Amino acid sequence: MGRAAIGPGSQYYLERLTLNIFLFDLIQFNSIRLDPIAGSWQFNDMLACIILVSWLALLWLYFLWSRRRYYKAAWQLPGPVGWPFIGMGLQMMNPQTFLQYMDGLSHKYKAPFISWMGTNCFLYVNDPQTVEQIFNSTHCTNKGDFYRFMSSAIGDGLFTSSSPRWQKHRRLINPAFGRQILCNFLPIFNAEADVLLEKLDVEGVQRGKSLEIYEILKKIVLEAACQTTMGKRMNFQHDGSKAIFEAYSGITEVCVKRMLSPWLYPELIYRWSRLFDRQQKVVGVLFGFVEQLLQPAVSVVGVEDSDANKQLEEEQHQHQHQHQRQQQQQRRIKSKSIFIEQVREHVERGQQMSWQDVRDEANVIIAATFETTSTALYFTILCLAMHPEYQEKLHDELCAELPEHGDISIEQLERLSYTEMAINESMRLFAPVPMVLRRAGQDLELRRDDGVYLIPSGTQIGIDIYNMQRDVRVWGPLARTYNPEAHFGPDAPTRHAFAFVPFTKGLRMCIGYRYALLLMKLLLAKIFRCYRISTAARLEQLLVKGNISLKLKEYPLCRVERR
Ligand code: HEM
Ligand SMILES: *[C@@H]1O[C@H](CO)[C@@H](O)[C@H](O)[C@H]1NC(C)=O
Ligand SMILES: *[C@@H]1O[C@H](CO)[C@@H](O)[C@H](O)[C@H]1NC(C)=O
Ligand SMILES: *[C@@H]1O[C@H](CO)[C@@H](O)[C@H](O)[C@H]1NC(C)=O
């Protein structure tokens, strides 16, 4: 962890300082030599100058020499050079245009290419062959340095942590997202879907308003996430959830801003900045929220609301009630397996995890669940709203496979192949996590058609999922259109296995991809079974910004009709 305090930032300072002293001395030295009235200078002064300059020059050369491996790699895979010391930092780090900018670069220089971010060597990758080698490599499981800002803000959870800690926690948390456990979540997913439908119906159909669906989806997904991972009902539909959403996007904003400001890299300086105050404020809100979630309570997974139970008690016959109680008991046993119960057990049983670890992991799990899933869901609905012809096909499938009303089971969901195509296609076009960063932990050999390239250990690797998944060279002429059949249909040409990686692949793959697909499928099925959604927006008009998770510059409104 010593490295955390002496990050790339301090290195940046050191280099900057070295150069400044070096240049300053050079100028001084020259002015001394050239000064015509400098009769009084002494030989000793000059000697001291020469020694100082040479010493600094040597230091500088040593610095360059120590980095020769990076320069050699950069020589082989040339990319934009950028400014001294800042590298491509300024241009790359503008989140408004970042993804479009990188796409432009990847056409100008042959990707993969090497560039500089601050003084870090940065490998940019956007082709499936290279992406495969990186995701498969056991030496690329640690995240890039940027994630350090995130872990210093919200704690070191699975998403950001590095090897020994990550491996241990991943092993402990993995079982909480297995297929068996997901089956227990279906009642919650179904119930949340009904809340969503009611909301769409009341606001969209009865009041006839055009809706900003993203906000509505975020609430539903966050509610489902809290119930299924923490076992807590939050009632976001009624209580204020705004502060929490703002805190989550505030964290992203703070981390991105810090990344844009190399002078804030060293912790010591950062702690005195205004950005740090803002970070503390949003972190305070988030920690309060997670603390609330962690309060011990009887799990709601599979357990009915107690008020509803009382009503049921009065209304229902005795034998039915008995049956229900049995069911409840069964469900309560099942709820032992949700995330929070599992980690609680690890804490209570021994030295595996501490409460601080649980807090960190809970924070990250909630953030990773709701941001990405609501984004993917939103884009799927938006794409279907923009393409009525595919929405009709989806509706046909739903009519054929599902009953008209009522809950949807996991077996029914597994038969919805067109729904899955529609989801995959929207995640292809709008990768919810547009870019991931890794760090080469050892020297890597990159095998390509035109030779083998050595990527030195310590290189930051940026994998541009967003641009790869809409690359014409990979996906053909329809790459930038929404067309589920052309890209995922049974007759679609086979693509490289790593051409579509919205959850990434390999050891560090998303832990919740099954969860996300299940929830999205269920919500989509329930929505499009009885409603038609349309929008005036067109695909070409959408402006995306890469902001850790994908965001739109403006969110178009949608109209909802009953079928
Ligand atoms: C459509 C929805 C989702 C997408 C597109 C998505 C995408 C991703 C991606 C790309 C990563 C790898 C990031 C990297 O390598 O830097 C990741 C990691 C992760 N995701 Fe997801 N995710 C989604 C939903 C979820 C859900 C529902 C959960 C929780 C139940 C979750 C929990 C995690 C965790 C804990 C990690 C870190 C795993 C590790 O590093 O070992 N995600 N996700
Ligand atoms: C990467 O891993 C996959 C699955 O484990 C395997 O099929 C593939 O051959 C591997 N590719 C490389 C380049 O090692
Ligand atoms: C990232 O997104 C959040 C929330 O949408 C926004 O408030 C923030 O300004 C964005 N950050 C940047 C640097 O654009
Ligand atoms: C959708 O993508 C996933 C990979 O994320 C794949 O396993 C699945 O087969 C795809 N579904 C369809 C219908 O193409």
UniProtKB/TrEMBL annotation:
InterPro entries assigned to the protein according to its UniProt record, in alphabetical order: Cyt_P450, Cyt_P450_E_grp-I, Cyt_P450_sf, Cytochrome_P450_Monoox
Keyword Transmembrane on entry: yes
Record-listed E.C. numbers: 1.14.-.-
Listed SUPFAM superfamilies: Cytochrome P450
Keyword check for Membrane: yes
PANTHER family: CYTOCHROME P450 FAMILY 4, CYTOCHROME P450, FAMILY 4, SUBFAMILY B, POLYPEPTIDE 7
Protein known as: Uncharacterized protein
Annotated organism of origin: Drosophila mojavensis (Fruit fly)
